Amino acid sequence: ISFNAIDSALSSLKNCQSYISSGMDMATQVALDLVESFNDEEDVNSMEKVMLEYATMDRQLNHYIKAFEETINQVKREKPENLPDLENLAQEKFLEMESENSDSDLQRNEKYMYFKDQLKEMKKQYHGNDTIEEIDEDIAVTRSQMNFICPITQMTMKRPVRNKVCGHTYEEDAILEMIQTQKQKKKNVRCPKMGCSHVDVKGSDLVPDEALKRVIDSQNKQ
């Protein structure tokens, strides 16, 4: 049995995943633009709906790919004399997976979680600290600017990344270099933020902090 055509089709489907991923990245950027320019909350909410639609497509695509891969592996294992209807078999598996869907699946989509996280950070940066500002605007600015400083380089960050585990931010190159250096010594990296108890910083736990980067860039332009 030749599976070349099927493998080629699966490869094309996997390419579609990258388009969905790019679409979600774009929707995140648009939502951050809206918050930054103080747009209506309804506009921001509409971007969240777009993200959930993308997450739904991503889940369906993942199920479809998984259903076909499982079907092919099953046929390769069993090696039947007569080739079964692969499409029907895959469709059955796909529908079985889809029947177990729940809204919480979408909420756990990695890109959607990043979207929500960055949106929260952006709103905090642009709409938070109102009471502090009323008391003393200089204190508010000073506190905000302290968040711009990398705990490793002690300089204003240019490409901040946030640790998903402890929530602290660092300059991307600085923390990656620290991880690499300690890895060569076969040692874990303790979070360099003073007072943090997290003792195993991993590169896979770091995500770009686009919200903070925008605030820093905006501050630098002033």
Automatic annotation (TrEMBL):
What are its GO cellular component terms? nucleus; Smc5-Smc6 complex
Segments forming domain SP-RING-type: 135-221
Q: In which pathway does it act?
A: Protein modification; protein sumoylation
Keywords from UniProt, A to Z, are:
Ligase, Metal-binding, Nucleus, Transferase, Ubl conjugation pathway, Zinc, Zinc-finger
Task: Tell me which domain of life the UniProt entry assigns to the organism this sequence originates from.
Answer: Eukaryota
Q: Where in the cell is it found?
A: Nucleus
Cite a single Pfam family from the UniProt record.
zf-Nse
The keyword Amino-acid biosynthesis belongs to this UniProt entry's keyword annotation:
no
Q: Which GO terms describe its biological process?
A: double-strand break repair via homologous recombination; protein sumoylation; protein ubiquitination
Q: Which InterPro entries match?
A: Nse2(Mms21), Ubox_domain, Znf_MIZ, Znf_RING/FYVE/PHD
Please give the family membership noted in the entry. Belongs to the NSE2 family.
Q: What is this protein called?
A: E3 SUMO-protein ligase NSE2
Q: What does the record give as the organism's lineage?
A: Eukaryota, Metazoa, Chordata, Craniata, Vertebrata
- Which gene codes for it? Nsmce2
